[in-house]
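User: I'm putting together notes for a lab meeting next week and I want to include a structural view of one of the chains we've been expressing. I don't have a solved structure, so I'd like a prediction I can at least talk through. The sequence is below, exactly as it appears in our construct file.
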Amino acid sequence: MKLDDLYAEAKQIAPWMVENRRALHRIPEGGFCEFKTQAYLLEKLKALDIPCETGRTWIVGRIDGALPGPTVALRADMDALPVTEPEGCPFRSEHEGWMHACGHDMHMTIQLAAARMLSAKKDRLRGSVQLLFQPAEETVGGAEPMVAAGVMEGVDAVYGLHVQPYLRVGQIDTRPGCLNGSTDELRIAVEGVSGHAARPEQAVDAIVCAAQLITALQTVVSRSASPLKSAVLSLGTIHGGEAQNVICDRVDIRGTLRTADPGLREHLKARIRAICDGVAASFGARIRLEFVSGYIALMNTPTEAARVLRLGGMLLGSENALVRESPSMGGEDFSYFVAKAAGAFWHLGCAADVPAPPLHNRAFSPDERCLPIGAALQTALVLDRMGMLEA
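Assistant: Thanks for the context. Below is the predicted structure for the 391-residue chain, given as structure tokens.
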């Protein structure tokens, strides 16, 4: 099988892909509430004679080839965002206040198309295909519970993609190693002693302590991490105080820590804790720090990232298969799948022109011409891993 033939096949079913994408776009749902989405996908997979198993709102489809070989998994996320879609779209969201503003409708459509193309070849497939339709990527994460349920058992390789409006249609990118950083939430409570504003010596001012803490925490990345490594600490909320003439006894701070290296992640956590302890001691306050673990870093297998770039270059031209220079600090829970098997995550250009409205923006509107490219490359990755793709 040749890549050009796969692309021609994908372009032939482009109207079917557009129909499915627009139907899915109309029914956006939140994490672990993708009931209509799950039902729609199950109907389409049944029509393709692909057996499926479900758990919560996820789907695991299976295509078993006629010949022995590796099991290759493809993943598509399913959930939407609590964003109100603007008027004017002919296939606008029917669930007011929800929108596929991150392109997951595109991802599911591409996976359905790859499933259709691969299922039509199952009498020649040298191995099996595991189709992972995953809920809750935008919230608590559906990948980790899916892995815990055993969906990656026996899987030899796994691939996923995300549409990106910073790339034009006809471009892709990825990188070996870390593609997305880990995410951790910080919850900090600064506890002092309240008192009259006229008698500060009788109190412990939590606001002054919190101000010093915030300033000190700005040195965590700049002075505790190599400038050659990716990390970012952002404090997003601060709440404290009840009246202008009362010294505040509690300030709550929330933020995130994002890193591209597991060792650096633990080092910076330790530095944050040490700074909290030191500032608390210097002010006579108490600082309670809690880390809430988010997604682990997404680490592409170098050989599989190279496979994506090689096939992307064959299809689109080497100048359009780009190596991303640095990781993104945005979380991506495909990381749990690729932690269980060799694999790669890659980005598919979806902008008619750049700059374009970004992901998570109510004006985000991916160009559907990228759908056949995504379907052809995902299908090609499976066949190439099975040793079935001709040069």
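A couple of points you could mention at the meeting. The chain has eleven helices and 16 strands. The radius of gyration is 24 Å.

User: Perfect, that's what I needed.
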